[in-house]
Specification:
heterodimer; A: about 425 residues; mainly alpha; Ferritin; 19 helices; about 0% strand; B: about 90 residues; about 90% helix; rod-shaped
Chain lengths: ~425, ~90
């Protein structure tokens, strides 16, 4: 079809020729419902303040006339265990604000999309009815500032809508980051007692009160149930700590993925991409963590500063130092081979990937052998390196024959419990 | 056992307050989960769902955890009141 036919022929009457492009897809979401949810969160934050008042009253009433060091311990224990609620209040307010902000952005995006859709459709209709696609749109006559041919104007509207969709996507990402950041602070800053501390607290306190065994046992059981709840937090906290040293970073794959999944920072994928980018992956991890640290820094109240500083130090201070150490001291072939061996052992990897990984391991081994031979030039060393080569082949065969137990062992290194026992204080 | 000045009425009243606070914390935890579920249904972006789930799970469980601790403290005040009563009989 020639241009003439297109503009003046049957195509101009074809409604499909001017159907709306993909950018005009409806934006899902209900801003009013989001605002209602945000209001509920704010109301719950208010209720936490009331509840804190009830806790204070209860504690003060309990020890009003009770003159004993045990009463003091009672108060201290309660204060330690109820510090979480004021922060939960702050998190709820921050979450509510973030939801309200997103609701406004969503509402505005939906409004603009609806408005621009009408404009686009009107121009499309005018264009279909126009004898010439370069004929001036009627709306240009009524709004002299909006010049241009049909095509130009429709393209401009399409670009506006694309920008709106893109901006809203960015706002959604910002909301997600804010929510994850608030959740992370709730976990890290609050210093929730570990299960072990909790059980010890109940045991010590119960014993100090001289409680009968059966009462103590009940409390123990209750604390144990609570311990299961906080165990998740402990895992995540441990994993945050685990990311702070090279040694721990070296085995962070699955363990680290707990926090990575929760924070939706896909460090895990980056880490395993190290098979391709080698140590560059660590720089990416450092960058991600520094971003996280900045978010936490920007959104935390002053009174949490001291605790937060520990986290920031972990992320921004220790980690770069350890990464620097790793990047300057570890030979690339060795680190690469580690990941290649993981690939070979992975039952989910296709055989071709295993073959490539095997070649990579062999290549790394040859690099090391060749370098050793060239540097020394000694026959004895050449023979030794040949021996080492044979050793590597035997080791390769051993690894292949024992791939399942080796995988189990490597997996066990990544189990949070065992990991904590091995590496954390 | 040192019960100097301990008052059964005070301990019982404290138990009531702490029990109320525990129930409040639990209700707040449920409220957070429900509000975030509503927000998930309304946000229209799957990318936000995970963040809302984590936020909800974390903050709600902090409140749930506090509720459990307050229950423990309440039980302690109740047992304490019983022991004071037994000692003064």
């Amino acid at each position: 079809m020639s241009n003439y036919d297109y503009y003046y022929g049957s195509a101009i009457r074809d409604t499909n020729a001017y159907s709306r492009p993909d950018e005009f897809t409806r934006i899902p979401g209900d801003p009013s419902a989001l605002r209602r949810a945000a209001t509920v969160l704010s109301q719950l934050a208010d209720r936490i303040i009331t509840t804190n008042g009830t806790i204070d009253t209860g504690m003060q009433t309990a020890v009003r006339d009770w003159q004993s060091n045990r009463s003091q311990k009672f108060v201290e224990s309660a204060l330690t265990l109820t510090t979480a609620t004021p922060s939960a209040e702050m998190r709820l307010r921050a979450g509510a604000k973030a939801l309200n902000d997103y609701a406004s952005a969503l509402e505005e995006a939906q409004r603009i999309l609806a408005q621009e859709t009408i404009r686009y459709d009107r121009l499309a209709t005018e264009r279909r009815n126009a004898a010439d696609c370069y004929e001036q749109p009627r709306s240009s006559v009524t709004n002299p500032g909006e010049g241009g041919s049909f095509d130009t104007r429709m393209k401009r509207i399409q670009e506006t809508v694309g920008t709106v969709q893109g901006d809203l996507k960015t706002k959604a990402q910002q909301l997600a980051i804010e929510l994850y950041g608030q959740a992370a602070q709730c976990i890290v800053v609050e210093q929730i007692p570990t299960p072990k501390q909790l059980l010890q607290y109940v045991k010590d306190f119960g014993s100090a009160l001289g409680e009968p065994d059966e009462v103590l046992r009940d409390k123990w059981s209750h604390a144990n149930a609570s311990a299961i709840v906080v165990d998740k937090y402990s895992d995540i906290r441990s994993n945050i700590s685990a990311l702070t040293t090279w040694k721990k970073l070296g085995v962070q794959g699955k363990t680290g993925s707990h926090i990575l999944k929760n924070l939706k920072v896909d460090l895990d994928a980056i880490f395993f991409d190290a098979t391709r980018t080698r140590l560059g992956a660590y720089e990416e991890i450092q960058r991600k963590l520094e971003e996280e640290a900045q978010i936490v820094k920007q959104t935390t109240a002053e009174q949490d500063g001291k605790k937060l500083q520990i986290l920031i130090n972990d992320f921004s201070d220790k980690l770069p130092r350890n990464i620097h150490w790793a990047t300057t001291n570890l030979p690339v072939p060795i680190v690469g081979s580690y990941f290649d061996i993981i690939d070979i052992l992975d039952p989910n990897k296709p055989i071709t990937a295993k073959f490539v990984a095997g070649l990579s391991v062999a290549g790394s081994a040859c690099e090391v052998l060749a370098a050793t031979t060239l540097v020394t030039g000694s026959t004895a060393v050449v023979l030794s390196t040949f021996g080492i080569g044979v050793g590597i082949v035997v080791l390769g065969w051993y690894i292949y024959e024992n791939r399942d137990p080796i995988r189990l062992y490597l997996d066990s290194l990544w189990e949070p419990e065992q990991f904590r026992e091995k590496f954390l204080p | 056992m040192d019960f100097k000045g301990a008052n059964i009425g005070d301990l019982e009243a404290a138990g009531t307050h702490l029990g109320q606070a525990s129930a409040d914390c639990y209700t707040i935890a449920e409220g957070i989960a429900a509000a975030c579920a509503d927000a998930m249904a309304a946000c229209g972006d799957p990318g936000i769902d995970g963040a809302l789930g984590t936020f909800s799970g974390t903050v709600a469980q902090v409140m749930s955890f506090s509720s459990g601790q307050l229950d423990t403290l309440r039980e302690i005040t109740v047992v304490q009141a019983q022991q004071v009563a037994a000692a003064t009989e």
